[in-house]
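Milestone M4 deliverable, item 7.
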Amino acid sequence: MPKAPKTNKSKKISKKIADRKKNPLFVKEAKNFRIGNDVQPKRDLSRYVRWPRYILLHRQKKILLQRIKVPAAIHQFSKTLDKNQSSKVYSLLKKYSPETKTEKKQRLIKAAEQKTQNQKPDSKKVNVLKFGLNHVTTLVETKKAKLVLIAYDVDPIELVVWLPQLCRRQEVPFAFVKNKARLGALVHQKTATCVALTEVRKEDQAEFDNLARDLRQHYNENHELLRTIGGGQVGIKSRHQQEALKKAFEIEELKKTSQ
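Output delivered:
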């Protein structure tokens, strides 16, 4: 097949390209990304990172809890207090955090000095937060606890899975909070599975009553918590497959109806 003759238009375009190449202001310099040459471009390497084992386990556990059906008794732990409610609870409980080691040392020194001077030491009862799973359990069983906070990320969950039901039975207001490290900070520990409040001062009574009423409605009297099953969420690939199958069935139905 004979070639088409070159038109003036094509000559002009080729001339423009030649002029562009000759322009010294825009000289093309190809980058060399071999070792010791140009700096490599920034890439997202998160998929290639060798993450620590505890991070992998944490992520895998999160995905598993989304996929498999989680019983209501365990799923209720994910229904934690929101930011506003938790800030109110923590601000109240911070007033009742137990004394630190230095505070205790100072108190004992002061008591010893008073004893040497034949003065009566201050034996005033101090209302503080109670912690430790066994201790909190006995307080709930004897109905001495007025408020119980349970961490949502206790591992294994079997340690505290029965505690919400015990609180319901004993009519003690309780709540699930984030997280065990934050609860531990209230009582000067690394972590705490649960904390309990036994006594409240007169100045905090009104605030505590409002808080306890809200928590009762949200947890103790909320029967939906023990009925809703968690998990059952399908992954993105499976969802796409299901949608494709659904579309295929719809097309088949349309073909049948049109015939």
